Amino acid sequence: MSEKPRLTYINGRGRMESIRWLLAAAGVEFEEIFLQTREQLLKLGQDGSLMFHQLPLVEIDGMKLVQCRAILSYIAGKYNLYGKDLKERALIDMYVEGISDLMQLILMFPFSPPEAKEKNIATISEKATERYFPVFEKVLKQHGQDFLVGNRFSWADVQLMEAILAVEEKVPSVLSGFPQLQAFKTKMSNMPTIKKFLQPGSPRKPPPDENYVATVMKIFKLD
Amino acid sequence: MAEKPKLHYTRGRGKMESIRWLLAAAGVEFEEEFIEKKEDLEKLRNDGSLLFQQVPMVEIDGMKMVQTRAILCYIAGKYNLYGKDLKERAWIDMYVEGTTDLMGMIMALPFQAADVKEKNIALITERATTRYFPVYEKALKDHGQDYLVGNKLSWADIHLLEAILMTEELKSDILSAFPLLQAFKGRMSNVPTIKKFLQPGSQRKPPLDEKSIANVRKIFSF
Fold first, then answer.
1. Is the ipTM, as predicted for this complex, more than 0.90?
2. pTM given for the model
3. Which residues does the UniProt record annotate as the domain GST N-terminal (chain A) (predicted)?
């Protein structure tokens, strides 16, 4: 009997959320351990579970995987969400890396001081609508297919869907100039595994709040 | 006839250096087109050559690839430096992410104010000797093989060598507590393609000098 993957993180989105999205989209059930104290993190580091003393940690197929990109690549490869050959993988990697740069702004947002928040939302909006979303709008328009790469559901589609929803939480009208992305969002929302993940009670985590920020600061001891 | 890959970047190391290392170690000859001033970057952007308006960009196999990690993954995959299966790839990915984090800290130094820089050099030294290098030392010790993954040269080995040399430029005795990494460095430096890359006249780039730092700031507007 194969065990379910086990995710260790805090009870919030952070750098684990993309992994939750990908496993869920692949239809893979997983377990989660939520750290609540710094001591728990230090203990994990001491017993050799964390290669670089950092989270996320995903225990899967007998490995203790760390580093988001390594984890996501492994899951994508294992569940056939990584294209059919090197060139499709290259496209998926490029798209995912670009989206990841946009998501980095979202990731850091809760930790910015109150006076910087308005400016940061403007930056997120600008980058989304001028640098990133136009690329994917064009890709979808040019090939007219439902999915970004190879006419087949892949990691890139999951990552883009996550990013669209995350940006919309900050900038609700962000897709107003992007009809292809609007259609894409609808199609993705209706895929059975994603539809399930978007329903209440799924492992999807809510947007970060003050409690999340405080927990992160406490456990990861950020300056 | 296969064309040589063509690299678009500034004349310095930056995010392109790991790509130069990997191509060189794989024995792949490549061309470089250097961005010397802001107008060169603008031209690439206006031509539609840069998917996200950013460099590095590498023209390879009919693609204009961007995003450092995507480019490196493609090269590693193409030249059999990415392990033999998914699990070996996962190990290589983990190791590479570690050396990426370490080198990223070093890359940022030239652009920092003197007091911040001094603090960060101390932090880098501490991280290198307590967080990163112990991992690779242990990996080599545990399996006793010459290479990090699968008893075969991979992207992880090349990236680690690059990180070791870059960290040594900051503190020359950084490997003093790591005998296996010292031996690893010696072995890797003698791999023919790498040996060639380490010689003067290769496409390996030197650390940035003051003038180049100012120019980079101008080109990328920061």
1. yes
2. 0.96
3. 3-83
A with B: how many residue pairs have Cβ under 8 Å apart? 76
* DSSP annotation of B16: G
Residue B105 tokens read as: 């800290």
The reply to whether B152 and B168 lie within a common domain is yes
Q: Is B187 exposed, middle or buried (0-12, 13-18, 19+ CB in 10 A)?
A: middle
Residue by residue, pLDDT tens for chain A (223 residues) are: 468 999 999 999 999 999 999 999 999 999 999 999 999 999 999 988 999 999 999 999 999 999 999 999 999 999 999 999 999 999 999 999 999 999 999 999 999 999 999 999 999 999 999 999 999 999 999 999 999 999 999 999 999 999 999 999 999 999 999 999 999 999 999 999 999 999 999 999 999 999 999 999 999 876 4
Residue of A51, A93, A97 with shortest CB distance to B135: A51
Tracing tokens 């960060």 back to the chain, one arrives at B120
Among B52, B65, B74, whose Cβ lies nearest the Cβ of A131?
B52
Rounded to the nearest angstrom, the minimum Cα separation between A178 and chain B is: 17
Same domain, B186 and B200: no
Residue A114: domain span? 84-189
